Amino acid sequence: MSIQQFSSARRVARKLHLLVWKRRAELWNDPPTRVVDILPLPLDLIASRLLGLQVLRVPEIAGEVGGSPTAGMWVPNERTIILSEAFHRAVVAFTLAHEIGHAMLHPSISALHRDRPLDGGDHRRAPRRDFREREADHFAAALLMPTRELVTTFNNLYGGSISPSTVDEKILLYLRPPDGQRIDGKAFAEAPLRQRALWFAGNTRVEGLPVRPLADLFGVSLTAMAIELEDLDLVQ
Q1: Is the entire prediction scored with pTM above 0.85?
Q2: At what angle do helices 7-22 and 131-144 cross, to 10 degrees?
Q3: Do the Cβ atoms of 159 and 27 come closer than 8 Å?
Q4: Residue from 220, 16, 7, 14 nearest 134 by CA
Q5: Topology of the domain comprising 3-144
Q6: Where are the domains of the chain?
Q7: Which of 32-36, 39-43, 174-178, 231-235 has the lowest mean pLDDT?
């Protein structure tokens, strides 16, 4: 599913980024001076202080969604988001961003809305999934991984987009994914695109120096970051 199909949702997320930066003194006691320092985004404060939403975190939410446990709920008549904390923090963060997406993009939703656990993975590409759900997914992805900041950070680390034909051997020499395996040019070229993107999403070293993995920096799952790197053609 093309990222361009959800460009309007991503524009709304970008406008929210600009609002966060403009009103950062309301969100941080010591306001950041660099855009990258607002990451990961303080979603609870953004929802409550900037959007007038209430966020309730609970140990778990009763009921299921399509056979999966409920991870989040949007209660439109109360402008309230309920989050289950029974999941990994990246899942909780993406679910919260997804529910904020419903609040901003889908004002016509009038009944209580439940969502299964979301981590920003391939569910946002599933063509049979309800369009509004995929739209909220893309909003969440763009909110958590601001395109300009992600592209700038990636370029600062690696000098530009990465493909089997352009990757610098020095990058491969120090590439250290979470499993610690060594990757040479042949293995990189033969690996599926998703695997290459996952390696960069979780990489911990650049030119021999430790770096914070992109997934960790932006507060998302490895899969969510890998898909964003693919969609932005940063890893090809």
Answers
A1: yes
A2: 40
A3: no
A4: 7
A5: Arc Repressor Mutant, subunit A (1.10.10)
A6: 3-144, 147-231
A7: 174-178
